Amino acid sequence: MPQIRPSVLVAGLVTALLSTLAAAPSFADPVAAPEAQQTSRTDVAARTTSARAALTPRTRFTMKPDGSSGRTVGGEGIPNIDSVKKTIATYYGDQGSGTASKTTSPYISEVQSILRRQSATLQSRYDKALRQHKGKRPALVFDTDDTTLFTYDMEVKAMHFTFDPELQDEWVQDERFPATPAMAAYVRQAKAVGYTIVGITGRSAAQESATLGNLAKVGYGDAFTDPNFYTKWSGAKPSYITCKVATACTTVEYKAGTRRYLEKKRDLTIVASYGDQWSDLMGGHADHSVKLPNPTYYLPSANLPGKKQRELAPRTHFTMAPDGSSGTYVSGEGIPNIDSVKKTIATYYGDPGDGTADKSRSPYIAELKKLVKEQRRSLESRYRAAVRRGEKPALVFDSDDTTLFTYDMEVKAMHFTFDPELQDEWVQDERFPATPLMVDYVNQARALGYTVFGLTGRNDTQKQATLANLAEVGYAEGTFTSAHFFTKWVSGSTPPAWIEGCAGGSTCTTVEYKSKTRAHIEHDLGYTVVASYGDQYSDLVGGYADHAVKLPNPTYYLP
After folding, report:
1. If we measure between CA atoms, which residue out of 425, 440, 450, 423 comes closest to residue 546?
2. At 543, which CATH number?
3. 251 and 367 in a common domain
4. What global pTM score does this model have?
């Protein structure tokens, strides 16, 4: 069996990686060194280790919580949203059903650790408050969602990380939420010490009765009572709340203003405030702030004028393995918050907030321009070199987010949750625009003489619609042809003859399917794959291409 030719160039990565490649000509330029010009296969074999190392996702990220990093970090520098979901699932002990473990998980362990530390000082802080604030009653203030009541199952199984206020109200009115792990016992302990227990929640006044009922039902007993439970008002705001925009108070204005009222008018001294959002805690009027972990949503709010509180700010640096395994050992704050990831992705694609990408100008398009410009520099020379060697030069292209652009489907239609039936509608209706810059590039390659192959994870029933979509958006006639366009066989059908030896029998991984098909293009059809192009690393690994060109895509991950 011929030796696999591993990929030897990755393009389209973040600037730092491109700079690394440029600084290492023995890897980045297959014809730079005289000894590497003996044969293509000698050259490729010499670079196996470097090539494989390059064809792996990033694991370190810098991301601001407001999404602004999408303007500067590049596609590979944005945490991939599917990897974020897997990391969150691991952290919460979710086995894939969208429900969190209620008995053991890294999340439960972290919350228990936080509350053990708090429990150790409950009595001493209570006594200190009595001494320092004579005539005032020591109090603890608690947020509700993911502070006292646990919303993971609603957020993930029911909503798939896309908030639905009507569905949320159903869960609230039906009192479906379990207690946040270890929190009910902690609140009962605090009440037994003598603390006044106060709830301040972003839930509406219409949800107060059901929320109190839910809290009592899951173990808080009578710790939370109507006089000491504050919800967002309907109608006129309370007189003790001061807001910059009177008709639209921020979370910090509402919660800090309520804490101020409790201390100034209710004769309480707030020893500690507890919340899962930084905006639950900002604005002062509490001796201590206790942040509970929650990477499943982010509710930002500006701090009050003059308040710095730099310690009450989200993380901006993260380490995350693509397979989700980081959820076993990083803290909740060490997981990229999924709402911040979504905002960063939207910024990167020029999405104004409606789930559609800008088709003319965005950081994503700017990155593709650089990538295509870089590839064009060697497009003709690589073709001529292959012809001089007596080879038939070919290029292999993936479809989704390589030649056809799926952002609007993935985000506006699916909200980052893949739906195979909806995807098939889009495919059969030929709804996809071209991936920016790729039409001219592919057509140029075809005009130079390259044979162009398509190699997609779409299935055989989608082949004709995909070819029609490609033609419709401008890929020149004869560029993508049925004979040179490979789709996956449908379940129950026989794989092509060249697909054999997959670890799962007739069920092949993406890497097995695509690398074996590239081997078929080379060894059975007689072509040399000069370059393979894809938005997923699994499009590219496995060899049988002189160069691997990675397009950026943080919107899904197919390992």
Report:
1. 450
2. 3.40.50.1000
3. no
4. 0.90
Reported residue count of the chain is: 559
248 contacts 117 by C-beta, under 8 angstroms:
no
pLDDT at residue 51, rounded to an integer: 44
Closest to 77 in 3D by CA, of 16, 130, 135, 3 = 16
- Residues 385 and 473 both lie in one domain: yes
Structural domain count of the chain = 2
Q: Work out the angle at residue 302's Cα, subtended by the Cα atoms of residues 338 and 210, and round it to the nearest 5 degrees.
A: 65
Domain membership of residue 436 as a residue range = 352-550
93-111 burial, b at 16+ Cβ within 10 Å, e below that, comes to bbeeebbbeeeebbbbebb
The last residue of one of the domains, among 317, 336, 360, is 317
Supply 168's token pair. Answer: 């949320």
The residue type of 234 is S
User: For strand 60-62 and strand 317-319, is the pairing parallel, antiparallel, or unpaired?
Assistant: antiparallel
d(CA 273, CA 259): 9
**Residue-level pLDDT at 105:** 98
The Cβ of residue 379 has, within 10 Å, a number of other Cβ atoms equal to: 18
pLDDT at 492: 83
Q: Which of 317, 334, 364 is the last residue of a domain?
A: 317
User: Is residue 22 predicted with pLDDT exceeding 60?
Assistant: no
Does 161 map to a domain? yes
Rounded Cα gap, residues 245 and 257, in angstroms = 14
Residue 329 counted as domain residue: no
Same domain, 265 and 362: no
Instruction: Let me know whether 228 and 159 are in one domain.
Output: yes
Residue partners of 312: CB distance under 8 A and separation at least 6: 278, 281, 282, 289, 291, 303
For residue 349, what pLDDT is reported? Answer: 98
Does 148 have pLDDT greater than 90?
Answer: yes
- Residue 453 has phi, psi (to 5 degrees) of -115, 145
| pLDDT tens per residue across span 217-261 | 999 999 999 999 999 998 888 999 999 887 789 999 999 999 999
Q: CA–CA separation, 79 vs 65, rounded Å?
A: 12
Q: Mark whether 301 and 201 lie in a shared domain.
A: yes
Q: Are residues 491 and 433 located together in one domain of the fold?
A: yes
Q: Is residue 230 part of a domain?
A: yes
128 burial type by CB count under 10 A (0-12 exposed, 13-18 middle, 19+ buried) = middle
CA gap 330, 295 in Å, rounded = 12
